[in-house]
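Quick one, probably user error.
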């Protein structure tokens, strides 16, 4: 059995907070110097068995397979979509579909609350899990936070406190893997999460990366608020200061030049940034120019992979009820919209193989099709990726 310390030492911890939850707070999530959360107080080994089963850093189990596993996984339907509410469409990260589906679920009383991440009150930087119960809550927390969050440290408390309630969960693909692993080990929570909505995710940058981006503005007043994007599409990385001033940079400058270069090791070997375990997974339906995404400001638009019949029912009903508008999308177009995801899906099996060899098989990734894809990729390119991953892993130790 793997020790929780091994997960951390091998760079496989995502700082999700489940260690804190399952140990009833005996293990605490702390913010490490590298700007990521990590569990502290794991020396006893008392929780190793359960952490081994729930940890999304080492376990991603896709039981949600349709007939085939293409590069994009199990897809029942693919569509472009956006929020009909123009304010939400503008304020959200992409087209506001994720928030619109959440609002639809609340306003039609299909769930009692939405579990999702947003910025902590009184902070411009730190994120935490919220239970949203109204359109206003959802709109306040919409948008992407390109930074860590202790998503699950409090999850048992939330589910036990509101013990008669059901929820929808919004999160990164690894958050969904975490919650599903957790429910498999604690069946008393089975049926409490009725919908899983994923946001596409290319990697989680550290808080230090956000500080670095803010630092480029060279202001000597404290930041009050930070929006990574949104208020347009993609919108600007915008910091508002206590003297009423604000500074901003484009999405290409923030994600493309700073944040995207500072994601953790585990994200580099992520085989599921595309929400394979979700009912619906949504990303940016970027317009493309010469085969690459074009970040010219325009009205926001998501593309959505509807992966389950539960998701399909939700999507169709939300459209019928006037919460989202949709248009047809040919799945072949997603390759250009999401080129980094496409390349990572093709090659990641080589990186995973390197980690498996060096950690004596710590990763338990099932049903996500990466080895098959890796064999179809260019082997020389794959081999170079495996060597690069091995080097990075050695440097961590
Ligand atoms: C770390 C990160 C990486 C991303 N990588 C990609 C990518 O590779 N490709 C792509 O197309 N898009 C990426 N996005 C953006 C996001 O997937 C899209 O914007 C998605 O289309 C959702 O858009 P929306 O308008 O429907 O979301 P909204 O309606 O604005 O809702 C966004 C939801 O995401 C939740 N959320 C925000 N930040 C986090 C977080 N850090 N952890 C968990 N939940 C969070 C919020 O609670 C909110 O409910 C990334 C976002 C993040 C946070
Ligand atoms: S359960 Fe979460 S916090 Fe604990 S080791 Fe795994 S990823 Fe890290
Ligand atoms: S890239 Fe993968 S592992 Fe990293 S935060 Fe995103 S979903 Fe999680």
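Nope, works fine. Designed sequence:
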């Amino acid at each position: 059995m793997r020790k929780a310390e091994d997960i951390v030492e091998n760079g496989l911890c995502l700082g999700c907070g489940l260690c804190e939850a399952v140990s009833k707070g005996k293990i605490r999530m702390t913010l490490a110097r590298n700007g990521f959360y990590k569990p502290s107080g794991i020396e006893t080994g008392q929780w190793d068995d359960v952490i081994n089963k729930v940890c999304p850093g080492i376990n991603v189990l896709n039981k949600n397979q349709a007939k085939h596993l293409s590069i994009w996984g199990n897809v029942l339907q693919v569509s472009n979509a956006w929020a009909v509410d123009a304010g939400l469409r503008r304020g959200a990260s992409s087209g506001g579909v994720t928030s619109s589906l959440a609002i639809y679920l609340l306003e039609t009383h299909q769930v009692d609350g939405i579990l999702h991440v947003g910025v902590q009150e009184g902070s411009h930087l730190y994120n935490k899990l919220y239970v949203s119960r109204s359109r206003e809550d959802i709109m306040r927390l919409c948008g992407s936070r390109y930074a860590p969050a202790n998503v699950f440290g409090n999850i048992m408390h939330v589910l036990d406190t509101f013990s008669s309630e059901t929820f929808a969960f919004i999160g990164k693909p690894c958050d969904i893997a975490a919650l599903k692993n957790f429910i498999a080990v604690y069946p008393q929570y089975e049926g409490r999460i009725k919908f899983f909505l994923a946001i596409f995710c290319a990697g989680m940058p550290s808080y230090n990366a956000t500080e670095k981006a803010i630092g480029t503005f060279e202001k000597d007043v404290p930041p009050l608020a930070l929006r990574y994007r949104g208020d347009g599409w993609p919108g600007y990385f915008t910091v508002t200061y206590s003297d009423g001033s604000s500074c901003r940079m484009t999405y290409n400058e923030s994600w493309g030049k700073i944040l995207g270069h500072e994601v953790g090791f585990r994200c580099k070997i992520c085989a599921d940034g595309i929400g394979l375990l979700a009912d619906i997974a949504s990303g940016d339906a970027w317009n493309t120019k010469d085969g690459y995404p074009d970040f010219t400001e325009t009205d926001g638009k998501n593309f959505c992979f509807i992966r389950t019949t539960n998701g399909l029912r939700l999507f169709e009903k939300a459209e019928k009820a006037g919460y989202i508008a949709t248009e047809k999308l040919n799945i072949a177009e997603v390759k250009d919209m999401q080129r980094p995801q496409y390349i990572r899906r093709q090659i990641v099996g080589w990186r995973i193989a390197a980690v498996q060899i060096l950690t004596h098989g710590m990763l338990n990734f099932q049903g996500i099709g990466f080895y098959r894809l890796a064999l179809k990729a260019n082997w020389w390119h794959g081999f170079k990726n495996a060597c690069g991953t091995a080097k990075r892993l050695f440097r961590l130790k």
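The two ends are 20 Å apart (CA to CA).
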